[in-house]
Design goal:
Length: 379
């Protein structure tokens, strides 16, 4: 089954009671049993819910995985992965990653005896230097947030396997439409479903996908025990959003490329970070493991002046100044003061998150309106 067909049909079937083509919203907390232990597969909605089940199967199919689990947020999905570890375990993570991921690693789990190493993953050398017998997890984002760095998933999978560690890949920016980490050797794929999978800026949700049965059992145990599950209504909305994922991603990619090329030629722009440029670091790896280069772009202004960046994000009209990304509408953000404010300034700047860095989530509006908006804002 091809991707577009899976997006519409995987995990879902007409309702047996009514024939409804859309999966019903099973807005219930509990389920009547015919007798003790005699039920229809559902006991309590924290553990299982038919609407959520359909969504979990759908997302797993899109990632070519066997098991999917949905959570109340992307951070809750990350929380589940780290709870698979024990005190004394170590994690090697990219040093350019979403600020919320950095925050939960450092301020929540580090005090429980889990050690985190943050290194550049553009090559394997820095990762291998931190691997030891206590390494139990390698955490990858690719493309990274916000510098769009490309990490070789197959290479990281080989390193993790040698160390006996789990490789988890945050695939939020690429989505399963552009990239399938499980096919490249990853053990777990993580998504902030809030972003492209939901696609309409109306849901907060996270997801994990794996094909490893032992990992899946632990994933479901933690999901049920910790209780950070997604609601039936949100599950319904994401199922609906995913049905157009392939169509939306096509437009995000088309618009993103035109915006990237426009910015690269603008006299007020210093650098543009977009994996589709041949000079972008690890561009060849991006070509190998991605089907296109997405609609996420970062760029810095000449002079690296914070006030210039602040003025630019105030002048846009089509773009909206807001946290998050991946919706149908174009969003603009300032990582240093918004999504990555939790990361100390020295560490931000070391990875390229300078004061004038702007991050764009290019939407699906008419490209002429998008480009005109950027032109007037930069002007």
């Amino acid at each position: 089954m091809k991707f577009g067909t899976k997006a519409i049909h995987a995990g879902v079937k007409p309702d047996e009671a009514t024939g409804a083509i859309m999966t019903p919203i099973y807005q219930t907390s509990t389920y009547v049993q015919d007798g003790i232990g005699n039920h229809k597969g559902y006991v309590y909605s924290r553990t299982q819910n038919p609407t959520r089940d359909a969504l979990e199967k759908n997302i797993a199919a899109l990632e070519n995985g066997k098991y999917g689990a949905c959570f109340a947020s992307g951070i809750a999905a990350i929380d589940c992965v780290i709870k698979m570890l024990n005190p004394g375990d170590e994690v090697v993570s990219t040093n350019d990653l979403y600020g919320g991921t950095f925050r939960i690693f450092k301020t929540i789990f580090e005090k429980y005896g889990i050690k985190f190493h943050f290194v550049g993953m553009s090559t394997s050398d820095a990762v291998r230097a931190k691997i030891n017998e206590r390494t139990k997890l390698v955490w990858v984002e690719t493309p990274t947030n916000p510098m769009m760095n490309i990490i070789d998933i197959s290479a990281m999978a080989a390193i993790a396997k040698e160390a006996g560690a789990i490789l988890c890949v945050d695939n939020t920016f690429a989505t399963p439409y552009l990239q399938n980490p499980l096919d490249l050797g990853a053990d777990i794929v993580m998504h902030s479903v809030t972003k492209y999978l939901g696609g309409h800026s109306d849901v907060v949700m996270g997801a994990l996908v794996t094909s490893d049965e032992a990992i899946a059992k632990e994933m479901y145990r933690i999901q049920n025990s910790s209780g950070a599950v997604t609601a039936p209504m949100d599950s319904f909305l994401v199922l609906r959003g995913i049905k157009t994922l392939h169509l939306r991603m096509q437009r995000h990619c088309e618009n993103g490329e035109k915006v990237a090329r426009f910015l690269s030629e603008h006299p007020k722009v210093d650098r543009v970070y977009w994996p589709g440029f041949s000079e972008h670091p690890n561009h060849e790896i991006a070509k190998k493991q991605m089907r296109h280069f997405g609609g996420m772009i970062s760029f810095s202004l000449k002079g690296d002046d914070l006030e210039d960046a602040m003025n630019l994000v105030k002048r846009v009209k089509v773009f909206a100044l807001a946290e998050s990304l991946g919706g149908v509408e174009s969003l603009i953000g300032h990582p240093a003061t918004m999504t990555h404010a939790a990361i100390p300034k020295e560490e931000r700047q070391r990875t390229g998150v300078v004061d004038s860095l702007i991050r764009l989530s290019v939407g699906v509006e008419d490209i002429d309106d998008i480009l005109e908006d950027l032109e007037q804002a930069l002007g």
